[in-house]
Amino acid sequence: MKQSQIFIPTLKEIPSDAEAKSHQLMLRGGFIRQVSAGIYAYLPLAVRVLHNIEQIVREEMEQIDAIEMLAPAILPGELWQESGRYATYGDNLFKLKDRHERNFILGPTHEETLTYLIRDQLNSYKKMPKILYQIQAKYRDEDRPRYGLLRGREFIMKDGYSFSANQAQLDDAFNKMEQAYTNIFNRCALDYRVILGDSGDMGGNASKEFSAVAEIGEDTIVYSDSSDYAANLEMAQSIIQPNPQETAQPLQTVATPHTPTVESVAAFLKVTPKQVIKSRAYVVDEQPVLVLIRGDSEVNETKLKNVLNAQQDVQMATDEQVESMFHSVAGFMGPFDLPETVKIVADSSLKGLCNGVTGANQKDLHWQNVNLERDLHLSDQDFVDVRTVQPGELSPDHQGSLQFTRGIEIGHIFKLGTRYSETLKATFLDENGRQQPVIMGSYGIGISRLLSAIVEQHCDDAGIIWPWQLAPYQVHVVIINTKDEDQVQLASEVEASLQNAGFSVLVDDRSERPGVKFAEADLIGSPVRITVGKKASDKILEIKLRNQTDSVEVNENDLIDSMKILLKNY
């Protein structure tokens, strides 16, 4: 392909609104252009990379007998009303009406659609298991689209769905998909972690995330420095030291003027923050919930939502709600003398804590010597994990300590179970002739997000350094002087020779200064640059790998053999 014929609108300056390295480089390299906030056009170079990624995905899906299909992007609202997600999905859902005032949405994901498509077809256990997948654009009305392709309103996704007659089939599909995703991300040359994830709005009872390590990542990955344990911060657990054994003292109130914070009350009463039982007021599905947690810890709202099986996100109570729903005052809340409507949740870090301190629901007043088991009659089962782990704590597998890093979610696999099949009445007859709900799994890869994650990890100050299998063009041939007939002729011979050997080739045949051509070649990031210059009459070429600083000169006759040798180090 001649570079003069392809559309590559490069930029010399870094766009002022581009924060992420991948966003900057793909804009400067002419890979993408913004059409609207969170909505991008994929230009020719990006399309070639996307096709390479999609080809890897298709090859790995074929290995596990997953079948490709394509569902519509515009979906009838009643399907999502049946599942309940039309109301609960939130403001991220693009909603629209047709000329007959019927409700439609732009699909952010396709669990409902695929369940609808199979519910009258997979009606016998003999027709399962089955795995279907698609690669298409998805739509989510993000409040704050940012970082280019990492968080957009329109994005490309591979979404797959398994349909099983029993748990063993679901487990098998889940495990196969996990291995396929591992193969895909390995082939994309990514540094990533497989972590325990939150199923969130998707539902189901088990999920794993694939997260690419990157400073710009919006997720926090928690991992052990001595084992394979890894989890999203929302799901991470740790082992904390048990509370020290003490002699329980009598419960009593104490005046604590001007002490609305953990630090101020701890200093006033001369105790450590660990002895303060912090009270956090929430409204969950319109009901008041008081969370008790150790003073040096914070509530993990995802864990809290899962513990309570909440249908909507948990919300911190306002000062007005603290007064009206909890009959308390902000800064001095506690678990005593609350209305019966208030549900109390105690974090497991408080188990066995003697002589703690809590608010007394009156300004400038606290309870001392609180023992939750004694004073609130809590049993072991009443203590649950709703705490956010902290770096350095013991890994839950007792191997090593927890470390934190940032990551980009690039894939997520879920065991949905019967969450959608029961709601949408997708049933089958089992071996005994009884009707059962189809057991489902859901498996997603952010294809366009993967594009950004790869660039984040494979770049330098000069531009992108594409992995071999993903590069838009594997070899970039640069003609120094396009008016020199020897150089033009040799470049044409080199292009033909490389293409015959199976390489994809971009030839810079533009009338630009050599410095501009070299800078743009580095920016675009093809793995190999071949320069055709002053020694063209002698059939001498210069080869340089994008990930190395040195170059070598070779004769045209030795080009292919030299390439094979050099690429062993790429």
Automatic annotation (TrEMBL):
Pfam families in the cross-refs: HGTP_anticodon, tRNA-synt_2b, tRNA_edit
CDD domains reported in the protein's UniProt record: ProRS-INS, ProRS_anticodon_short, ProRS_core_prok
GO biological process, one term: prolyl-tRNA aminoacylation
Catalytic activity: tRNA(Pro) + L-proline + ATP = L-prolyl-tRNA(Pro) + AMP + diphosphate
Top-level EC class as recorded in UniProt: ligase
Compartment list: Cytoplasm
Gene Ontology cellular component list: cytosol
EC number: 6.1.1.15
Quaternary state and interactors: Homodimer.
Protein family: Belongs to the class-II aminoacyl-tRNA synthetase family. ProS type 1 subfamily.
Role: Catalyzes the attachment of proline to tRNA(Pro) in a two-step reaction: proline is first activated by ATP to form Pro-AMP and then transferred to the acceptor end of tRNA(Pro). As ProRS can inadvertently accommodate and process non-cognate amino acids such as alanine and cysteine, to avoid such errors it has two additional distinct editing activities against alanine. One activity is designated as 'pretransfer' editing and involves the tRNA(Pro)-independent hydrolysis of activated Ala-AMP.
Protein name: Proline--tRNA ligase
The organism of origin for this protein: Bombilactobacillus mellifer
Organism taxonomic ancestry: Bacteria, Bacillati, Bacillota, Bacilli, Lactobacillales
